[in-house]
Amino acid sequence: MPPKSRFEKFLKPNDSLLTRVAAEVNLADINSNDISKDIAEIFLVARGEQGEKKTLVGLAAPQIGISKRIIVVDVMADGKGKVGDLRLYINPEIVWKSETDGEEWYEGCFSTAQVCGVVSRPDIIKIRAFNERGEVIEEEYAGYTARIFQHEIDHLNGIEFITHITDDAKLHWVEKEEFPDYRNNGHGGIGRINVRERSG
Ligand SMILES: [Zn+2]
User: What are the residues facing 151 on neighbouring strands?
Assistant: First the structure.
């Protein structure tokens, strides 16, 4: 069999692995061949999807079939199409978040196909994680970057962004080519889709 293309590596939206809690990485294994291979794979897919259209701002390992607590986040992403600093976080945790939800903004996901929506999330978070050398990382993020971390860490807990949406009017059907405009500018897409019937 030929090797899978990058896009085929994304699990289909109905894959049960996407709703599973991913396994913590044992710190003693960070330098193992297995974890190095996983990390290389995650970067390969993520960088590939940052290509011409630069749509990817974050990726969680389970989305490509690796059920481990590893994510990448582009900390330069501004929600307006800018990317350029994709970083790796192992066993990331949100250790503090602001009490009130920040502004709502538009999210999509490689694991929900054309289903997108408006999600309200805390505006400021502090995270704790490990880098690929096993060193502790403690950082604080606000706004759009904080949103990406929350979205990706949710994936590690088997939670997809649509779980946070209680109002069906905030769910939208967005074709792939419309997505950058939807996410960056907050328009496009057909509202009021009944996605709840589609999800298992
Ligand atoms: Zn996602």
Answer: none
Residue 186 is predicted with a pLDDT of 78
Judging by DSSP bridges, how do beta strands 86-97 and 124-130 pair with one another?
Answer: antiparallel
Range of the domain at 97: 7-102+122-164
- Give the environment of ion ligand 1: residues with CB less than 5 A: 109
* 181 is a domain residue: no
pTM: 0.90
Q: Is residue 16 in some structural domain?
A: yes
From the CA of 65, how far away is ligand 1's center (Å)?
13
Q: What is the whole-number distance in angstroms between the Cα of residue 155 and the centre of ligand 1? A: 7
Q: How confident is the model at residue 54 (pLDDT cuts 50, 70, 90)?
A: low
Domain count, the chain: 1
Q: If 0-12 CB within 10 Å is exposed, 13-18 middle and 19+ buried, where does residue 17 land?
A: middle
- Report if residue 26 sits inside a domain: yes
- Exposed (0-12), middle (13-18) or buried (19+): which is 171, by Cβ within 10 Å? buried
Asked if the model's pLDDT at residue 194 lies above 90, the reply is no
Residue 77 in any domain: the answer is yes
pLDDT at 199: 38
Q: What is the CATH number of the domain that holds 42?
A: 3.90.45.10
**Which pLDDT belongs to residue 198?**
39
Residue 3: per-residue pLDDT:
55
152 in catalytic set: yes
